[in-house]
Amino acid sequence: TLGKEGMLHIEGDSQFALPTQAKQTFDVTGAGDTVLATLSLAWAAGFDLNEACIAANSAAGIVVGKMGCVPCEFDELLAALRS
Question: In terms of pTM, does the model score above 0.70?
Answer without folding.
Answer: yes
